[in-house]
C-alpha cells in the first residue's frame, strides 16, 4: 500500500482566492490601498471628535482663563472660543455691582495691569506672558437675564504668540 508523496501534500489543495491574492504581486498594492482608505476615514473622524470633546468639555485653556477672570459677583451666562484657531477665549457674565466697582476689581494675581485705554474707559487690559486679558463692563440692557442696574462683564483672553 504505497501512496504517492503528492497525496500527503495538502498545500496544493488549499489554494483559495485569499491564498492566491497573498502570493500574487498585487498584495502590497492592495494592502496599501486598504490602509489609505482606512486612514481617509479614521483620521478626519478622530480630529472631529477631539475638537468637539475639547469645546464641549470646556477644557480649552483660554476659555478657562476668561472664566477665571470674571469677577466673583458675576454670574456666568456664556463662554467659548471666539475663533476657529483657538487663540481667543471669552466669557460673559452679569453682575449686580456697578460698572465702577467691577472695573476696580483686579483679575487673578498672575495678570499684570496693562496700559489704560483713554478711548475706552470701560475696558481694562492685563498681560500674563504671551496672553492678553481684556475686561469690558457695560450696563446690561439688552439681555432678558438683566435686571435694572445690572452690569454685563465681558472677559476675553487672547494668545499673541
Task: Describe the protein's architecture and organization.
The protein contains four helices and six strands. The relative contact order is 0.13. Helix content is 32%, strand content 25%. The chain has a six-stranded antiparallel beta sheet. The chain has 161 residues and is of the alpha+beta class. The mean pLDDT is 82. A hairpin with a 2-residue loop joins strand 4 and strand 5.
Strand order of the largest sheet: 1-2-6-5-4-3
Shape: elongated
Low-pLDDT segments, ≥5 res: none
Helix content: 25-40%
Query: How many individual helices?
Result: 4
Q: Give the integer mean of the pLDDT values.
A: 82
Assembly category: single chain
Strand content: 25-35%
- Rounded to an integer in angstroms, the radius of gyration calculated over CA atoms is 31 Å
Counting DSSP E segments of at least 2 residues, the number of strands comes to: 6
Q: How would you sum up the major sheet?
A: 6 strands, antiparallel
Structural class: alpha+beta
Q: How far is the first residue's CA from the last residue's CA?
A: 87 Å
Secondary-structure element sequence?
HHHEEHEEEE
